[in-house]
């Protein structure tokens, strides 16, 4: 299973992490992390984790976190999700499709240029 986090979500997490570090309070961060995932994502993750409770899953990750930076928190989240066979990605699936389309268009243009050159030789 793959879960995609877009730039807006990452920014939301960054702000929440900064607040948690500054205040020394992780309750709001816990709520923000839970809210990042859709209900369908949460249900699927709960099926895959031992505790069966997503809120507890996030709480355990926050307990392991040193409280110092976002990179460490995201690494813990990625690792724990990977253990549940869930891959966390940082781009939207639509973006990937659009990039592929652009690459395909570029190849088509290159082919046209080559074809034009071949015709000139004739």
Helix percentage range: over 70%
What class do helices, strands and sheet pairing give?
Answer: mainly alpha
Main beta-sheet strand count, sense and barrel state: 2 strands, parallel
Number of helices: 6
Radius of gyration: 21 Å
Strand order in space, largest sheet = 1-2
Number of E-type strands? 2
Q: Unreliable runs, pLDDT <50, ≥5 residues?
A: 95-103
Question: How far from one another are the termini?
Answer: 53 Å
Global shape: globular
Instruction: Indicate the mean pLDDT.
Output: 82
Order of helices and strands: EHHHHHEH
Strand composition percent: under 5%
Overall domain count: 2
Written description of the protein model:
By secondary structure, this protein is mainly α. The chain has 2 domains: 2-91, no CATH class; 93-122. 75% of the residues lie in helices and 5% in strands. The chain is built from 6 helices and 2 strands, in the order βαααααβα. It has a two-stranded parallel sheet. The chain is globular, with a radius of gyration of 21 Å. It starts with a strand and ends with a helix.
Task: Jot down its keywords.
about 120 residues; mainly alpha; two-stranded parallel ribbon; about 5% strand
Task: Annotate the secondary structure layout.
Blueprint: E1 2-4, H1 7-23, H2 27-36, H3 39-48, H4 54-64, H5 70-83, E2 87-89, H6 93-121
Parallel strand pairs: 1-2
Helix pairs in contact: 1-2, 4-5
In brief:
The protein is mainly alpha-helical and 122 residues long.
């Amino acid at each position: 299973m793959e879960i995609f986090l877009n730039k807006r979500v990452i920014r939301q997490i960054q702000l929440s992490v900064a607040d948690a570090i500054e205040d020394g309070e992780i309750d709001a961060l816990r709520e923000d992390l839970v809210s990042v995932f859709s209900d369908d994502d949460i249900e699927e993750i709960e099926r895959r984790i031992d505790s069966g409770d997503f809120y507890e899953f996030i709480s355990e990750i926050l307990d392991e976190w040193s409280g110092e930076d976002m990179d460490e928190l995201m690494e813990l989240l990625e690792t724990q999700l990977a253990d549940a066979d869930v891959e966390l990605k940082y781009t939207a699936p639509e973006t990937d499709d659009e990039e592929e389309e652009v690459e395909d268009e570029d190849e088509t243009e290159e082919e046209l240029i080559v074809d034009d050159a071949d015709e000139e030789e004739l």
